[in-house]
Design a protein that fits this description.
By secondary structure, the chain is an alpha+beta fold. It is built from 19 helices and 37 strands. It binds flavin-adenine dinucleotide (FAD).
Length: 801
């Protein structure tokens, strides 16, 4: 062990080894991995080794596909056998909704380029896997690139290939302490102290403690997990092929062949956490006693699905632990506020995600950004609220239990809720508000009559008419929306204007004005679709998506300059927005000032009734509208005042479901759909907001290169779809003459225009208005047409009126 390395990776499981490999492979060979015991000594040695690409987040599915492709390469590079059995895989559906969902998932796979899948009937599935009973199954999906690997061999292959590229592996050496230095970190180990620029927490079951060594509380917890390996099964001895890896979604089991027996893994409905503060330091390569009572129900289903199990004994029980984050996706990337401290933990499926995690983390460290959009696994997608133990327990437990349970797009899950509620929450609930969660905050979805319950559905739900009424109220009268669920950052100080000019590619608004502000990464891809407010008194606001608060804050802080004061107002500020042709009449009733004269995109401080508010004339709904920001404590008073003043105009409260429909009719993009860090300004038409005259903003060179090049290969369009009783939601493939030409970024029903709409990224040669295309909506191919942007009020007269 040397006294200094560029990077120290803590943990020799599959994740740490993959990171080491990717760093060394990409040219950073002055790196070492420090392992408490021996390689694989955490969760990795006893994993079932299953590999498959299915994941609800398409970006993560793509990284899983990368891992699967990588595995044979590291075997070759390292010379270590990884025991790869590419048996192919089946994912089986046992209810009509699940079967529909699987058909949609198959189409999403096509969208993201995973092209080795096909749908199969139960009969075909039974032929592919002859030991499976097809009783109760409605269909399945086959994938060529699924199977299993030898877990120990795979970790050694990553580590061996890393060593061949110059990296070092140090075993039997526990990291005891981490101390931040000016240059990076001092890593205190049993064998002495090493200094490094970057330290990576790949501590798996011990990630919690390695976080705490640096003062970081990671939202991660281990849970126990069972699988069994059966004795030899005569039928398998007779077959001249291996049965495919098979997931029975409704049965809560996964299965693969293990020599001439079966390995049956169970996602227990009745889950069990273990060592929430991290595994004990003396926890060796040991297992827990199997708990067959706890998994009885799933076991029965498993033995019915694979009847041959009923005739043989169980050779081995494995009850081990592995780690989960609240949403089940890994926690990867630079930890906010801890320079040079990187997280690579909560990797729930290390053998199928480890390659993608290693690649992304290494790119991030070396180049400043990963190539893929890894927001779904970014450690900064959570805030302080997720450090709470009860929150972690509820959410990780919910994820585990629901691992194979279908979640409908309109379903609101209960774990970790309600947490933060804006002050008017109780009164709004009384008024019929149905809530969803954004980050830690309850946000209004729609207002329903007493006793109304929404049915979970892949198609239009029974809340459709309610949302239609809310849209109508906004378009024809005036609607009131709680906008506590926007993020707000205050920027001030002598250098504020310079800093904002560097941060944003857009021209800054003049005093008393607001402006859509595009934030780019150094590589020219998007970092934010924010709104900038110049209040005219030396203070500015940046407003954006609430759930990106910590993610944006990390970016701001990483690019901070002297003379800038930055404050996240998210805990102090709330607000309501008025939208609709009658909104001016409502707000004017409440103020003596000239708020009614505010020009479109004008902003300023006004008295609204008793409340001192910051008001801006804008609306995401595309109507005449006002966003009224108040102190958190004024929220109830503001709502009451606006409802009272609006009574004459039949003001109606509405929620974000209606807002999503209204903004779609205006072709206004939103983050995580039309805009992501995977897209450039040119692809998303955000380049129209760039101030090309301005020097020195982040991402300028890359944006300029895109502008001066041949133009983006894909561009954004608005579609109308002959959609039947379901609307597109995102990532559905778009076709022209049988060839895939793009995918949907978001979709929904436009209640004012009476059409099913979608926004999409398509190849530029099919982007012309009137082009006829087709889209798979909930698995069914539907006709679609490219239409002019903003099907409602294309000239924007309503919002400027
Ligand atoms: C029963 C079971 C079945 C599974 N099946 C699958 C499957 O089929 N497919 C799949 O992809 N995944 C599966 N998994 C999950 C998989 O095991 C994990 O995702 C993976 O092992 C996580 O790897 P890791 O490197 O993050 O953590 P770990 O394997 O836990 O590695 C962390 C390492 O860090 C070391 N360490 C900790 N603290 C220190 C310290 N202070 N100093 C030095 N070293 C330290 C530990 O000794 C350990 O070796 C399964 C898990 C279980 C329990």
């Amino acid at each position: 062990m040397k006294s200094h390395y560029r990077v120290v990776v803590i943990g020799g499981g599959v994740v740490g080894s993959s990171i080491l490999y990717h760093l060394a492979k990409m040219g950073w060979s002055d790196v070492c991995l420090i392992e408490r015991s021996v390689l694989t000594a955490g969760s990795s040695w006893h994993a079932a080794g299953g590999i498959h690409a299915l994941n609800a987040d398409p970006n993560i599915a793509a990284l899983q596909a990368y891992t699967i492709d990588l595995l044979p390469k590291i075997e070759e590079e390292s010379g270590h056998n990884i025991g790869l059995h590419m048996t192919g895989g089946l994912t089986m559906a046992g209810t009509p909704d699940r079967w529909e969902w699987l058909q949609s998932a198959y189409r999403v796979f096509q969208s993201i380029g995973i092209d080795d899948c096909r749908l199969v009937t139960p009969k075909e599935a039974g032929e592919l896997n002859p030991i499976m009973s097809t009783e109760g199954l409605l269909g399945g999906m086959w994938a060529d690139r699924e199977g299993y690997i030898d877990t120990t061999g795979t970790v050694h292959a990553y580590a061996g290939a890393a060593k061949k590229n110059g990296a070092e592996v140090i075993e039997q050496n526990r990291v005891l302490e981490l101390n931040q230095t000016l240059e990076g970190w001092d890593v205190v180990t049993e064998k002495g102290t090493v200094s490094c620029e970057h330290v990576v927490n790949a501590g798996g079951l011990w990630a919690k403690q390695i976080g705490r060594m640096a003062g970081v509380e990671l939202p991660v917890s281990p849970l126990k997990h069972h699988y069994l390996v059966s004795d030899t099964i005569p039928t398998l001895e007779e077959l001249d092929f291996e049965v495919p890896m098979t997931v029975d979604l409704e049965g809560f089991t996964y299965m693969r062949q293990d020599q001439k027996g079966l390995l049956l893994g169970i996602y227990e409905i009745n889950h069990e956490h273990w060592a929430m503060d991290g595994a004990p330091w003396d926890y060796g390569m040991e297992l827990f006693q199997e708990d067959t009572d706890r998994i009885e129900k799933e076991l029965i289903m498993g033995f019915e699905r694979y009847p041959c199990l009923q005739d043989v004994g169980v050779k081995t029980w494995v009850n081990g632990a592995f780690t989960f984050s609240p949403d089940g996706n890994p926690l990867v990337g630079p930890v906010p506020g801890k320079r040079g401290y990187w997280s690579a933990c909560a990797v729930m499926a290390g053998f199928l995600q480890g390659g993608g995690v290693g690649k992304s983390l290494a790119e991030w460290m070396i180049h400043g950004e990963p190539e893929a959009d890894v927001y779904g696994m970014d450690v900064a997608r959570y805030g302080v609220f997720a450090e709470n133990k009860q929150y972690i327990k509820e959410t990780t437990g919910q994820f585990y239990t629901r691992r194979f349970v279908m979640t409908y797009p309109n379903e609101q899950l209960p774990a970790g809720r309600p947490l933060k509620m804006a002050p008017a929450h109780s009164e709004m609930t009384e008024a019929g508000c149905k809530w969803g969660a954004s980050w830690d905050l309850e946000v209004p979805l729609y207002f329903a009559p007493k006793g109304f319950e929404e049915t979970p559905s892949l198609k239009r739900s029974n809340a459709f008419d309610i949302v239609a009424q809310e849209c109508k109220a906004v378009r024809n009268g005036v609607g009131l929306l709680d906008i506590s669920g926007f993020s707000r950052f205050e920027v001030s100080g002598l250098n504020a204007e310079n800093w904002l000019n560097r941060l944003f590619s857009t021209k800054l608004p003049k005093p008393g004005r607001a402006r859509l502000a595009v934030m780019l990464g150094h590589d020219g891809r998007l970092k934010g679709d924010l709104t900038l407010f110049n209040w005219g008194d030396g203070t500015w606001w940046i407003m954006g998506s609430y759930y990106l608060r910590a993610w944006h804050m990390r970016w701001f802080n990483d690019h901070m300059e002297d003379g800038v004061n930055l404050r996240d107002l998210g805990e102090d500020t709330a607000g309501f927005s008025l939208a609709g042709p009658k909104s001016r009449a409502v707000i004017e009733k409440l103020t003596e000032g000239s708020v009614g004269d505010l020009p479109f995109m004008g902003c300023g401080a006004f008295d609204i009734g008793l409340i001192r508010a910051k008001v801006a004339r804008m609306s995401v709904a595309g109507e005449l509208g006002y966003e009224i920001n108040c102190r958190m404590g004024d929220h109830i008073a503001l709502r009451r005042a606006l409802l009272e003043a609006g009574a004459e105009q039949d003001i109606r409260e509405y929620g974000f479901n209606a807002l999503l429909s209204l903004r779609l009719e205006k072709s206004f993009g939103i983050w995580s759909a039309e805009f992501t860090q995977g897209y450039t300004a040119g692809m998303t038409a955000m380049d129209r907001w760039i101030d090309w005259e301005k020097d020195g903003f982040i991402g300028r060179d890359a944006a300029l290169a895109e502008r001066e090049g041949n133009g983006p290969a894909q561009v954004q369009v608005t579609l109308e779809i002959d959609a039947g009783n379901a609307d597109a939601s995102g990532y559905e493939p778009i076709w022209k003459n049988g060839a895939q030409v793009g995918f949907v970024t978001s979709g929904g029903y436009g209640h004012t225009v009476g059409r099913s709409l979608a926004m999409a990224l398509v190849n530029s040669d099919v982007a012309a208005e009137g082009t006829v295309l087709s889209v798979h909506v909930v698995g069914v191919e539907r006709k679609a047409r490219v239409i002019p942007a903003s099907p409602y009020d294309p000239e924007g007269k309503a919002m400027r009126g």
